[in-house]
Amino acid sequence: MAKSLQLLIILCIFNLTAVPLMAADQTCKTLAVQIKRERNLLKKQTVIQKALKLCPDDAAIHYGAGYAAERLRKYEKALSYYLQASELDPEYAKAYFGLGDIYMVLGNAGSAIDAYEKGLQRVPQNKRARASLKVAKIKHKAEQGEAITSSEFIQVMQQSKKKETTQGAIDGPLLRMQIHFLSSSAQLSDDAKAQLQIVGNALEDPALSGQKFEISGHTDDTGQPENNLVLSKMRAEQVRKYLLNTFAIKPDNLIVAYYGDTRPARPNTTMENRALNRRVEFKRLDQ
Hints:
With 287 residues, the protein is α+β, with helices and mostly antiparallel strands. The protein contains eleven helices and four strands. It is elongated and about 65 Å long.
């Protein structure tokens, strides 16, 4: 009889604690769905703030908050929410895909590759993430100075155009390349000409012919800013001149821009980062 009474007491305590937990879990699920479905941005933000207070440990809520921040181009905030979602639920593939997308917007292809691969380990059939991973790998190769093919250049430039307005965001489709110039000059090396053969073949391809592109020159912060600005202009102009003289490209389709050391891809704190900052970027423009 005593054992039966003991069991009854345990069951009562379990029911008293389990019901509120189940109700809270259901509330969080409802809020996550509400965040996803809400189209009004102001109302969505209200729901998100409420949900984060009620469900601070819910990965789906943090993912929803990250996605909303991404849509508003608040990329650092979106990055924080996606990271929290991945930490709260390490098996939540969508959080890793969100991280990959943000890293791509911020121009960090290496971190994007890592994030996409983690997500695909959990959901290997996601076609969009696989396509994004391919583009991230191409961009990473190009910015590291490794050889890419004309078809890879085309693949990057055929991405849909996204208007990004946040400072530091990539206004794609864009490809960063370490074009090899002779030291402190705008003279193209033989390696640079080989790189530009790939670019020129891609620009002549029917998939890109007729498209307009910006060729922008960038330097690291070594030397005087005014000298860096001049050098970046000379290098971008030399790239344009070589492409026009070697390939059947209309002059109006290649526009030069130059930024000196004002738009570093990485902080100028190491030799490796400075090498990444000494670059030429190719960006497809709207027609």
